[in-house]
Design goal:
about 140 residues, 2,3-Dihydroxybiphenyl 1,2-Dioxygenase, domain 1, eight-stranded mixed sheet, 2 helices, 8 strands
């Protein structure tokens, strides 16, 4: 079992520009970029054509550390204050569930912990101190 805590930057349509900037500033290595257009379509949330090239998820490595990025999901407001979240990454769905449930005490769930196309257990929660966490479980197939 392992756990990592990674800063996650949510940008207002300029994540690609930020990634390019940090890549140059820190001599960072891009580990992966997925656009909203590359994600499986969800009929409940149709993707506007102009949002296809926005970043759904990206990771860069700066030295020994990772930083994750995304653009705000199309149609959701970008809010100063929730631009930086903490992504808690585990390789154990039970550990992710325990962390999520613990943070839920006096907190507010934005997205219940659930299986997604990219994780067997993923959820978003703001704890009782107003800190937003993304709980991400690495797929066992990676």
């Amino acid at each position: 079992m392992s756990i990592k805590v990674i800063p996650y930057l949510v940008m207002d349509g300029n994540a690609k520009e930020a990634i390019d900037f940090y890549e140059k500033v820190f001599d960072a290595k891009i580990l992966g970029i997925v656009t909203f257009g590359e994600m499986p379509a969800n009929p409940e949330y149709p993707l506007p054509e102009e949002a296809r090239d926005l970043i759904a998820h990206a990771t860069i490595k700066i030295g020994d550390s990772d930083i994750m990025f995304s653009d705000t999901f199309p149609g959701q407001a970008h809010q100063i204050g929730n631009q930086v979240t903490i992504c808690v990454t585990s390789n154990d769905p039970e550990q992710s569930k325990q962390i999520f449930e613990s943070l839920q005490q006096d907190g507010q769930v934005s997205m219940p912990l659930q299986k997604t196309d990219f994780s067997p257990a993923y959820g978003i929660i703001t704890d009782k101190f107003g800190v937003m966490f993304q709980i991400y479980t690495e797929s066992m197939h990676q």
